[in-house]
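Today's session is about reading a structure prediction critically. Students often jump straight to the picture, but the first step is always the sequence itself: look for stretches that repeat, for charged clusters, for runs of hydrophobic residues. Only then move on to the predicted structure, which in these notes is written as discrete structure tokens rather than atom positions. Here is the chain we will use throughout the hour.
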Amino acid sequence: MKKVILLFLLSASVTLFSQNSVFKLELNYPIPVGQNFIGKNYTGIIDIGGKYSLLNKDIVSLGFAFNTGLLTFDNSENIIFQNYRVSAYSFQPKVFCEFNIKSIDKLHPYTSLGYSFMIFKATGTNNEFDISDLNDTQNGINLNFGLAFDITKKFFINAQYDFIKLKKENSIPYSTFNTNINIVKLGIGLKLYQKE
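Below is the predicted structure for this chain, in token form.
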């Protein structure tokens, strides 16, 4: 995990001096959906993202992106003897491709491919046993599709869909319920242009 993040940061920093580059910041609200353990149990809190375009052409822009988010599962209201909460932190380095449509210049569809790391941290008690030390990290391929719409030259609104396919874990039964994650993200963003 550290090697992937280090490689991503190194690649991004090497290209910081490229001309005509665009850096975008996003603030999103994540909505877990679907028939999976995240969609059924977790609530979205926040997702923060950044995109750095390395290549900007008339039709397409290519670059690196990184998102990090927080989802929570609170079991204290459901069962008396299971009073715990789980926080799921996501880290998503990826490469993206954004399309520029000349006839609708404010609309920008995009797609990205990357890898997601999800860290699950529990606090509270389960059947009177303290589970605050129980942490788990899962990871897998991340495929993302989105649509951004420019409100002004600097501000935009954003809607995107993340599909994450977690790797098989020995301690977790292998099924689509445990490995397929679907998250819809709705948000706003800010464009920062680098001088040529």
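Discussion point for the tutorial: Strands lie at 22-33, 43-56, 60-74, 82-99, 107-126, 129-130, 135-150, 155-166, 180-193.
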